[in-house]
Amino acid sequence: MLLFANSRLLLSLLFLCLSLSATGSLSVRVIASPSSLDENESFSLSCFVHSIRGQKVAIAWTKDGEPVKIDGQRVAQTRPEFVYVRDARSSDSGTYKCAATAGSTTKFGAVQVTVRGIATIRSVTAHMSAIVGDLARLECEGKNLRDVAWYHKWASIGKSSKYQIVSTNFRSMLIIADVKLTDSGLYQCRSGFSATATVQLTVKMPVLPRITLHPRDISSAKGTRVELFCRAIGHPPVKIYWVKKHGQRELYIPNNGSLTFSAVSDRNTGIYQCIAENGRGSARSAYATVTVENTVKEVAEVTVRSTAKKSSSVVLTCDFGTSRQNGVTRWYKDGKLLTIDNTKYALPYYSGGAALLIQDVRCTDDGTYNCSFFIGHRLDRFCKRRLVVEV
């Protein structure tokens, strides 16, 4: 009796399977290979249809709701269920659907395809330098960056306590901690297989600052231009500061390290020192004394009427009580050093001191003229002359 019941159960299952085969439903599955790729690469689309044996199935392809254009060249179709796309473009990205129709029944299968633009890459700075023990940051940037990898002397760099890589789709940074001399060399930043940028890293030992040019004592008349010079070397590059003895830091000089007073006054009198720093140490120069002399200035006015004649001229003189041949004379107009070219300005001989010849006098020659007489680097005499040009 039991054997008979089991036989009836098996017959029922067999009948159910045969019924499903005869009336089975339509199913569709779509595969893209690969589904993510770069421009100029190729991909294929496959539509797998399960239907009743012997039943005719019509297949149609669409991309984002529009029929796929089969041109037989770049986009080819060997069979209705297979589509092959070569030299892929960014415009080929989208949702591809395969519509399978059997009788009055239509089923769909879909797949997403992403075609990435061609990656372009360049180094932000082609040459970098670092100091032993510092943190170095190397950067590359571009478009459509992906799967960015860094290499040092052709060896791949992985994330570790020494290396850290931070990347986006347009920039990648390699951070190197505790830089050593062995970290010098060529680094490569690669996106995929084709886009590569290089950065040359030079690692140097730190060099403590050293003063190479010390300032010198200077004595000058009030109102004249005074400049103290200081030079220093070191690595990293040094920054130069100036201090006044028994005072606070006076000035930070970002360029050549010189301390300049455009018009020196009594408050500038004092003892100065320059300090060179670079984060690794510091160096101090010798002291330099600035003395401001209150020299008596003789003031005289010379009135010259401006005419149209080119030959009009005037001579300004300063009586120093000694010949200018014993020193160097400099003339200034309204604080600006004059260029003696023997055309507009000349220095005629004057036994009592210094003289300035101004030729072809014009209205623009009106102003205050200063004469400074130097012996060596020391200002020995100073005088002022006022020239009034009347029209």
Shape: elongated
Oligomer: single chain
Main beta sheet, described?
6 strands, mixed
User: Which class of secondary structure composition applies to the elements?
Assistant: mainly beta
| CATH class category name of the largest domain | Mainly Beta
Count, helices: 1
Helix fraction, binned, reads under 10%
Low-confidence stretches: 1-23, 296-301, 303-308
- CATH homologous superfamily title of the largest domain: Immunoglobulins
Number of domains: 4
Rg, alpha carbons: 44 Å
Going by CATH, the architecture of the largest domain would be Sandwich
3D architecture notes:
The structure is a single chain. With 391 residues, the chain is mainly beta. It folds into four domains: 87 residues, Immunoglobulins (Immunoglobulin-like, Sandwich); 85 residues, Immunoglobulins (Immunoglobulin-like); 87 residues, Immunoglobulins (Immunoglobulin-like, Sandwich), CATH 2.60.40.10; 92 residues, Immunoglobulins (Immunoglobulin-like, Sandwich). It is 6% helix and 54% strand. The chain contains one helix and 36 strands. Strands 20, 23, 24, 26, 27 and 28 form a six-stranded mixed β-sheet that branches. Strand 15 and strand 16 form a beta hairpin. The N terminus is likely disordered.
